[in-house]
Amino acid sequence: MPPNIIRGVDGLPKVILTEPGGSSAEVLLFGGQVISWKNDRREELLFMSSKAILKPPNAIRGGIPICFPQFGNFGTLEQHGFARNRMWSIDDCPSPLSPANNQSSVDLILKSTDEDLKTWPRSFQLRLRISLGPGKLTLIPRVRNTDSRPFSFTFAIRNYLSVSDISEVRVEGLETLDYFDNLKQRQRFTEQTDAVTFDGEVDRIYLSTPSKIATIDHEKKRTFVLRKDGLPDAVVWNPWDKKAKALPDFGDEDYKVMLCVDSAAIENRIVLKPCEEWRGCQELSTVHSSYCSGQLDPWKVIHG
Ligand code: TA6
Q1: Which atom from ligand 1 is nearest to the alpha carbon of 59?
Q2: What is the mean pLDDT of residues 145-172?
């Protein structure tokens, strides 16, 4: 049975996922983008800009956009690729994945169009399974090369996390890693601290990270645990005040209540021969505790 597609207040077609535990998620066909994820206490876990423009083809500033076939701004392609600016459709043939349970899971697909082939002359199919479970949200992206020649791409799942106060947030699991600093012409540095904290703009691509990264929101006693596979890198981004003012679809004060911690494949491009398929996986979950409560030992989260 195809998932139930409804139209939101903005008129955009979307699918609502629910699970018996009481959490929910909203997925737009536009951009194949999760725009809301609420826990069993109906608290919103994802950030949506107070100035977000929900009007295609504008990218939507919040939720979980997909950056494909490129992360960043290089060459002829638009920044972060075009997948987030396209209307996706329901995938009736998600094999080899087993058919999804339609209440809490949806399969989406984006196929290259003649228009896309003008900017990125490679024929592809991008599939995304989004599954909701108690306390977790799982995304399984797959790219299939339907072209007659090999192609390569970079990829990111951009998670706009909602936080209570960015200056009180710590990101654990990135210590001692190398990163490209987008604020310093992508120069390579090594993380010296045992936790990334925020008192200004941060725009970094951490390389070959552990498969688990913890984002700890002290005030909310909430930790986002990001588990990922097939996506070796992680982007950490907060625009802070100046960049926030410069972005037309970003509220001036919004930087205080958001942080992007993305699962990505950027340093080494993914190469696919004809008919080959790449698969990635990301699971976002939340645990109710904070560092100082001693209940959550980030070391255990990362290494547990
Ligand atoms: O990852 C950070 C970044 O590349 C920043 O440099 C900033 O431009 C941000 O993404 C937002 O990009 P967007 O195209 O969504 O405005």
Answers
A1: 15
A2: 98
Per DSSP, the residues of 198-267 read: -SS-EEEEE-S--SEEEEEETTTTEEEEEEEES--EEEEEE-HHHHHHH-TTS-TTGGGGEEEEEEEEEE
Q: Which residue type sits at 42? A: R
Cα 245–Cα 246–Cα 252 angle in degrees, nearest 5: 15
CA separation for the pair 153, 256 (Å, rounded):
32
Q: Tell whether ligand 1 has an atom less than 6 A from the beta carbon of residue 203.
A: yes
Integer Rg of the chain from CA:
18
In the structure, what pLDDT confidence band is assigned to residue 210 with cuts at 50, 70 and 90? very high
Q: Which residues are bridge partners to 265 per DSSP? A: 155
Which atom from ligand 1 is nearest to the alpha carbon of 65?
A: 15
What is the rounded CA–CA span in Å between residue 227 and residue 221? 19
Q: Is the CB of 237 under 6 A from ligand 1?
A: yes
Q: In this predicted model, which residue has the larger pLDDT, 293 or 206? A: 206
Region 5-303: CATH code: 2.70.98.10
Tell me 257's DSSP state: G
Is residue 230 within 8 Å of 277, Cβ to Cβ? no
pLDDT level of residue 134 (50, 70, 90 thresholds): very high
H helices of 123-248, in order, are 240-246
pTM for the predicted model, two decimal places: 0.95
In order of 172, 226, 267, the CA distances from 218 in angstroms are: 13, 17, 31
Mean pLDDT of 173-177: 98
Q: Is the CB of 233 under 6 A from ligand 1?
A: no
